[in-house]
Predict the structure.
Amino acid sequence: MKHYFLIFALMIFAAGTFAQTPAGIKLGFVDSETILKQLPEAIKAQGDLDAIYQKWTAQLDSMSQTFQEAVANYQKQSATMKESQKKEMEQKLVAQRQMVEEFQRSKFAQGTGEVYQKQEEFLKPVKDKVLKTIETVAKEEGMQFVFDKTEQAAILLYADSAYEITYKVLDKLKRGK
């Protein structure tokens, strides 16, 4: 309950702060999702990332399937195996499971996996270019602040569309100026 009260109090404070914004301050906003969905460099980077992700997912699926088949085979044959054969097969299965888990961890671990490293590698130049262009457009328009209006991060609760610069930024990015 305290958590909700704190959020409500912060919203009221923020609303009061924006209501008292000096007349000389000009605000703008962009929808970064729209920019990234329409910018050719971002589309290519996302496509390259998706291709790598699909390749690694297929590899992981194949490794998992092979492991599951080995487990099923072991379960069928374990009744007729000698104890030494069982131990040897169990050790192989443990090693195989660890290999699958290590592959999954190395490729897909949140923040440290290769997928996230590739995402940074492919998308950082695009994001840097977009941010620089936003800064350029904001300065041209005389804006002191530019907010991002995305569905994932609802930073902006209301915005008059007259101050949206998404398409100006996108146009400038596409023209290369």
Summary: The longest strand covers residues 27-30. The chain has one domain: 25-175.
